[in-house]
Amino acid sequence: MRVFDVLIVGAGAAGLTLAHTGAGAALPGAGAPEIALLDPPVGAARPKDRTWCFWEHGAGRWDAVLAARWDRLSVVAPSGARQERATGPLSYKMLRSRDFTEHVRTGLAPNVHPCTATVTAIEDGTDHATVHASRPDGSEVRLRARWVFDSRPLPAPPAARTTLLQHFRGWFVRTGEDAFDPGTAVLMDLRTPQPRAGVSFGYLLPLSSRDALVEYTEFTREVLDDAGYDAALRRYTGRVLGLEGFTVTASEQGVIPMTDGRFRTRVGRRVFRLGAAGGATRPSTGYTFSGIQRQAAAVVRALEEGRTPVPPIPHRRRHLAMDAVLLRALDTGRLDGADFFARLFARNDMRDVLDFLDGRSAFTRELAMGVTTPIAPMAVTALERALLAMRPPPRAP
């Protein structure tokens, strides 16, 4: 049986990024790695098309397939006060999953070997791991590799003291007349009805003067039903944005766990978790794509250096600690989420806030930003978190 250097389970953002990046690696004394890429057949196991957004300084490796980019960002407070800033050299970028997938798949190097099969078991070993899978025709296949990276979603978030859900529905809308400023994206429009605990907001990504992605998002414990999302979107597009006579050309929906639970990226001697399953999602924002890029780059460096390629959690410990306090303050209702985010963006340079949310800020700057937010509820929650840390950790679900 052939033994691959790397086997990747799942061909979503994390799996394809690692395949694309790892294909050009140079293993010590062996040249380019042989990579197997397993993905289930089209069906329920594959996620629907979605958009991924992220921000970065200057040009990036995925610029050729971006759906859009913006160099001006806006945040709207509950009062209607608008904070709009140019963010150069930082750009906010939108990537459609289907464009990303097609771009990576059509450019796969010869040393990447795709396989359509549904994984049924992963067997760890001393020198290699074995992946058992079923092909679409029902036949069984076994593949072995020195290292296996599993990017499939976890069945449930890890044990945590606080877990909120970032849940949303978005409409791609087209208007009959000019209605949008294609040069400015709205990160948070907080003029939505606020939940008792958590926060809600609108999100507007204009693709042209007449086309945009409009989303309604909540950070709460419970998701809405279909009628709830549609009612929230009708209210936001009509009463808040004043849109009339538009057509919904497509929609998207998602749920992202926002948790202070600890993710394990190493689950065996030869088996690792990658992507959202490996803690790539930033707990306070739900953004994942940038974390995936850092995680994959670290894995490839380890392979090239002959080290055990354990994917790192791509967020600093102090940022995870800050995120844990924010999540609990929102969940308990002691923090007014809309006021918090409005003040954060109004009293700080937007580029500094985005650098912090992407884990690239300096500690001194973070302290300066901290004093611009509601101090009392955050301090009480930080103390509560410290007391909770003295108790036994929660069990996994």
Describe the protein's topology:
Layout: E1 3-9, H1 13-22, E2 35-39, E3 51-57, E4 68-70, E5 72-76, E6 82-86, E7 90-96, H2 97-106, E8 112-116, E9 118-123, E10 129-134, E11 140-150, E12 163-174, E13 184-189, E14 199-206, E15 211-220, H3 226-240, E16 247-259, E17 271-273, H4 289-304, H5 317-332, H6 337-346, H7 350-357, H8 363-370, H9 375-388
Helix pairs in contact: 1-2, 1-4, 5-9
InterPro entries: FAD/NAD-bd_sf
Protein name: Lycopene cyclase family protein
Organism: Marinactinospora rubrisoli
The CATH homologous superfamily of the largest domain is named FAD/NAD(P)-binding domain
Which descriptor suits the 3D outline?
A: globular
CATH class of the largest domain: Alpha Beta
Q: Kindly identify the CATH topology of the largest domain.
A: FAD/NAD(P)-binding domain
The number of distinct structural domains comes to 3
Written as H for each helix and E for each strand, in order along the chain, the element string is EHEEEEEEHEEEEEEEEHEEHHHHHH
What is the average of the pLDDT values?
94
Protein name: Lycopene cyclase family protein
InterPro entries: FAD/NAD-bd_sf
